[in-house]
Amino acid sequence: MAAQAAAIGVPGSDVFRLEGEYWTIAYGGTVCRLRDAKGLHYLAHLLCRPGQHVHCDDLVSVVSRRQDTACSSERARLAVTKRIKAALKKIDQHHPALGHHLVASVRTGYRCAYLPGPHDSITWSV
Predict the structure, then answer these.
(1) Residues 54, 76: contact at Cβ < 8 Å?
(2) Could you give the C-alpha distances from 7 to 17, 31, 96, 101, in angstroms and in order?
(3) Which of 8, 9, 65, 105 could pair with 26 in a Cys bridge, judged by C-beta atoms 3.0 to 4.6 Å apart?
(4) Where are the chain's structural domains?
């Protein structure tokens, strides 16, 4: 555990990990902890797949662990977008540098994606 804590404080060891009821988020040598929320789950799913587009229905299924056939794609898109934007706002309040990076890199809609810039060499530990 001490090695993990030491690694989190090292610049370049970017972490976005759920630990119990809180997410440990480390970026640029700064660490913060946020209470669990669905939007953070959606972000974690996207961060594991940089450059890939994920359909909003798939994000909803990942978090809820079930397929809801009554849930339309439009409702899924609205819910995912709302929760991701709320999570980004919360991250920005606690870690402005990461908030700025994610606002610039995360796309929402029917297909969501984490699209870091070509000069961003981030490998997230989730």
Answers:
(1) no
(2) 14, 11, 21, 21
(3) 8
(4) 37-125
